[in-house]
Specification:
This protein is α/β, with parallel strands linked by helices. It contains 6 helices and 10 strands; from the N terminus they run E-E-E-H-E-E-H-E-H-H-H-E-H-E-E-E. The strands form 2 sheets. A 6-stranded mixed beta sheet has the order 6-7-8-3-9-10, sandwiched between helices. A 4-stranded antiparallel beta sheet has the order 2-1-4-5, with helices on one face.
């Protein structure tokens, strides 16, 4: 599902962030990517999500070479990817409207968007908060909403950039259990965190991002 070869990325000042990254994630696999702050985890996930174009190297997602896709093809690919960005912040709307807005951006018509939004909120245990202003949510509720946004369109690939940040240990386990639930044998999941990974978020494989390179423990 994901194949990365000889990936390099540097700042405009020439500072290397990612260096000779090689990574493969099989269809249906769940991978945890651990690394300290500023190690490049967020950059790597943004590259995999086709949010940022690669500078050098090859990224294949769902059999498509990200660097060679047109803007339209990138948008089509992104519809198959669920992405939880670092420091997720919801729109100043209700919980339900946040999910509906995402689905409409993805091209879902009204009835389908409504149905998928309810399914996503039910999956993360937020259906009762659907009318709540998203800016009034607690940190763990915001994390759950972020997950609902990531999974609302039943993506083939789920990329989660530290959904545990800012949560206490019990809340991390609660969110970790949701992440584990979304790994159902069909979805491919990559979750990045500074670690440690919550016990409830069991992963098939754990990798570490060290000095700009992905290594096995």
């Amino acid at each position: 599902m994901i194949q990365v070869s000889e990936l390099h990325y540097s700042t405009e000042d020439g500072i290397k962030i990612l260096e000779d990254i090689h990574l493969h994630v099989d269809r249906g696999e769940s991978v945890a990517l651990l690394g300290p702050p500023s190690s490049g985890k967020s950059l790597l996930l943004a590259l995999l999500a086709a949010v940022i174009p690669p500078q050098r190297g090859q990224i294949l997602v769902h059999g498509r070479n990200v660097a060679r896709l047109s803007r339209q093809k990138i948008l089509e690919l992104q519809r198959r990817i669920g992405f939880y960005p670092q420091g997720f912040s919801p729109l100043p709307r209700t919980v339900l409207d946040n999910v509906l807005f995402k689905l409409r951006v993805l091209g879902e018509v009204h009835d389908q968007a409504q149905e998928k939004a309810y399914v996503a909120l039910e999956a993360v245990g937020m259906i009762r908060e659907q009318s709540t202003d998203a800016e009034e949510l607690s940190p763990v509720e915001r994390a759950k909403l972020g997950l609902a946004l990531a999974v609302c369109n039943s993506p083939l690939v789920l990329l989660l950039d530290d959904p545990f940040a800012g949560l206490d240990p019990a809340e991390q386990e609660e969110v970790g259990a949701l992440v584990n639930r979304f790994h159902d044998g069909r979805s491919t999941v990559v979750v990045a965190t500074r670690g440690p990974l919550p016990h409830a978020a069991a992963a098939s494989r754990t990798l570490h991002l060290v000095d700009g390179t992905v290594v096995s423990p």
